[in-house]
Write a structure and sequence with these properties.
By secondary structure, this protein is mainly α. It contains ten helices and six strands. Strands 1-2 form a two-stranded antiparallel sheet. A two-stranded antiparallel ribbon has the order 3-4. Strands 5-6 form a two-stranded antiparallel ribbon. Helix 2 (about 55-80) packs across helix 4 (about 105-120), helix 7 packs across helix 9 (about 225-250) and helix 8 (about 200-215) crosses helix 9 (about 225-250). The longest helix is centred in the N-terminal third of the chain and has 29 residues, at about 20-45. It is elongated and about 95 Å long.
Length: about 325
């Protein structure tokens, strides 16, 4: 996996294409180009039977340059790095900064490809791709481009992580009416993708979102609480309120009581995946009644198995 940094200092994790997939894409492109070259040569040969040998040789050179070299350059420029072979293999040519390529990039790649692919039957390109850490051939090095994989294996959609047990119910009196929907959406998107982000970038995003949330609610998180854990706890509180409101409005189902924090004995202090315990004096709520709207009870979240959110309690 390759880490590229954009102008906004955001780390992009791209998957560079390796030699097997690139070779297959190049074989498809060359097969198509040679078929077009042979077809055009036959048509031009029939049309130029009355010309002398010098004119026929000049036309052959022009066809070689236009079809075998100019054709791939035009296709990569117009398709922004996705030729027929790359499209079939799920590949794409991008700039070193992750942006789409332009004509000058395709021109350098095509000119170098005539030497390292056509004239050497791909030997130079194969060696360069094997030596390069990101699988780049000489044309990519001189053009400042990179071939990446656009199609990757399907992953499970992002799941909202539950808050740590030692933060559940601590914001039950928080006024969330001033928080706009755009901020809620940004927080949810961050929480579902927080484990896919670079640690430094994710921390800065969490801090900025937490500052915006504090400005809207007028309450600061407890001392030493990570920003991501604070966001998860506030989002969980909003989801619990929405669930209670929906069930109370539907009728026939009693809304569950607000959780009452009770001290947790030292022997049953919940732990998280990192093996750390909540600090002394931190209380964990115990909810009474069944789950409401898919929100599990506190004893189900904070059991001996620990938290699945991945948040470590403050030291």
């Amino acid at each position: 996996m390759s880490e590229l940094v954009t102008g906004d200092a955001v780390v992009l994790e791209l998957r560079p294409a390796r030699l097997p997939s690139r070779a297959l894409a190049a074989a498809i492109d060359l097969a198509v180009v040679f078929c077009v070259f042979i077809l055009v040569s036959v048509v031009v040969g029939i049309a130029s039977v009355t010309l002398d040998e010098a004119a026929v040789a000049a036309i052959g050179v022009a066809l070689f340059l236009l079809v075998l070299i100019g054709g791939p350059i035009a296709v990569e420029t117009l398709s922004h790095g996705r030729s027929l072979g790359k499209l079939a293999c799920g590949l794409r040519v991008v700039r070193d900064d992750g942006g789409p390529i332009r004509f000058r990039h395709a021109l350098v790649r095509g000119a170098m490809g005539a030497v390292e692919i056509l004239m050497t039957f791909g030997a130079v390109a194969s060696v360069a791709s094997l030596v390069s850490a990101r699988g780049r051939r000489l044309g990519d090095v001189f053009a400042g481009t990179l071939v990446i994989r656009e199609r990757v294996s399907a992953k499970r959609p992002g799941v909202m992580p539950p808050p740590p047990p030692w933060l559940v119910g601590r914001f039950s009196q928080l006024d969330l009416s001033a928080v706009p929907d755009e901020l809620w959406l940004a927080i949810r998107q961050y929480l579902t993708r927080m484990h896919q982000l670079d640690a430094g970038v994710g921390g800065s995003i969490a801090g900025r979102l937490a500052d915006e949330l504090v400005a809207r609610t007028g309450i600061s998180p407890p001392q030493g609480i990570p920003a991501a854990a604070f966001l998860a706890a506030v989002v969980h509180e909003r989801q619990a309120r929405d669930a209670r409101r929906v069930f109370s409005g539907a009728g026939g189902a009693a809304a569950s009581r607000a959780p009452e924090p009770v001290p947790v004995p030292p022997a049953s202090v919940p732990t998280v995946s990192g093996g750390f315990a909540a600090p002394a004096g931190v209380t964990a709520p115990v909810e009474v009644g069944e789950a409401v709207g898919g929100v599990p009870r506190a004893e189900e979240r904070g059991g001996a198995g620990g938290s699945s959110a991945g948040f470590a309690p403050p030291g």
